[in-house]
Amino acid sequence: MRLPPWYLTFPVFVIGLIMLLPLGYLLLKACSASPAEILTSVINQRNLKLFFNTLLLGVAVVIFSTLIASPMAWLTTNSDLKFKPLFTLAGVLPLAVPGYVTAYTLLSLTGFQGQQVLGVNLPNLSGFLGAWIALTFSTFPYLFLNLRSAMFGVNPALSDSARSLGYSEWETAWHVVFPQLRPAFLAGGLLVFLHVLGDFGVVSLMRYETFSYALFSQYMAAFDRTYAAWLALILIAFTCVLLVLEMRILSKNQYRQVGKMQVQPIVPTPLGNWKWITYPILTSVVFGSVVVPTLTVLFWSSRGFNVSVLTKLAEVILQSASVSIITAILATLIALLITYTSIHYPSTFSDIFERLSYIGYAMPPLAFALAWVFLSLHGFSLIYQTFWLLIVAYVLHFLAEAIGPVRSALLQIPNHLEEAARSLGSSPLAAFLRTTVPLLRNGLIVSFAFVFLATMKELPITSLLSPIGFDTLALRLWSHAEEAMFVEAAPYALVLIVVSLLFVSTILFKESEVA
Length: 515
Description:
This protein is mainly alpha-helical. The chain has two domains: 1-31 and 305-515, Orthogonal Bundle (MetI-like fold); 33-253 and 274-303, MetI-like fold (Orthogonal Bundle). The protein is built from 24 helices and no strands. The protein has helices spanning 6-30, 35-42, 45-78, 84-92, 99-109, 111-118, 127-153, 156-164, 169-198, 201-205, 211-221, 225-251, 275-303, 307-344, 348-356, 359-362, 365-378, 387-411, 416-423, 428-436, 441-457, 460-465, 473-482, 486-514.
């Protein structure tokens, strides 16, 4: 075990402490009340209703995301489906449409507003039903990507062995294939549920009360900040329970293949007559999740387009892009620092501080933002409601997204390259820049694209921490859509979709190169 040099240890240590600051201060704020007030804040009928609403929405979205993602993943890996790359792309493209854009689409296509678009007065989609549909369409790709990757890793030889022992197709699928997919189901389902738990844009537009919606309302009302702190802690506790449950379920089972077994290529299963149902269903999924929102946004954009809108739109695009670029650069550099220390100087210290970098991402965005509000008000008042506080919160929240691609790329680079460069007289920094950085290019690009796209679409943190007069595309879209100003919201939604599509394509292309 080699200890990292001080110029790596010190910044990693500082970043880890900063990660813990908001959570620590949130605990102090919540516990500053009397025991009776704490008991009243935690145990009451409203919290029980919020818990039930949040749990119901999360479970419903996970179930229907599974119903969409599972067959799509199987069809694009194990069947003789034609145009597999196209349908695989269709399973990922919904990531380019933020959930609140889908919610905006549903609201503008139903009720009185929908009559202008479709000529039919459809029932207004709001509340639980609207939130359920919008979140399902925007989150099922997370489960699809996990399942598709896992299905490629299932060894067909295991299924052949089971069938040779007398198992039927259904028995083989249940006893042999499904257990190997369980980690992917758990990881993807957990990711979907955590997105629902932390979502604010969709539930606020749909007027469906969950913990996140109540937390924002309570903070904006400014009547009881202690209750807001407890709502944030309940959200965090909810997240921790889910993470612990997943770890315990996975730890009880062994998923690694034991012994030697020849890995066989996947033999595509013929769809036969099922293909007449398969193609329309897959097409309808991408139509509902991507095409309909895009066409709806284009319709409303055409209704209210004028030159004066372009000036304000350009200003908001510039503000969104500037904060996203700075966040993506800083997050990528910090991710590189942390992962380089962890991989080249493995120790308990580096492992602990690498895990700490995930705290900001694990905390629901509104709870994370509220913690920084409390902290900046009472500890760092000079940065309250400033551009730099927003940047810090963005970087710490999205740091986990930047770490994955950088870590994967670093693990593929042999350590001896830097050692060889140093033996030839290069300094540690020069050796790193000459040998490692060029091989990290694709990983760094993917990390940058991940964080840039996430920052462009981010809403909850922006709504609480953005400086006065500062606007982003997400914030402007949400504020207009909340007031049912669909024409005014359309240009911002359109730019978000276009930018998201470009960056999702970049991520897919570069990740395939990294792989």
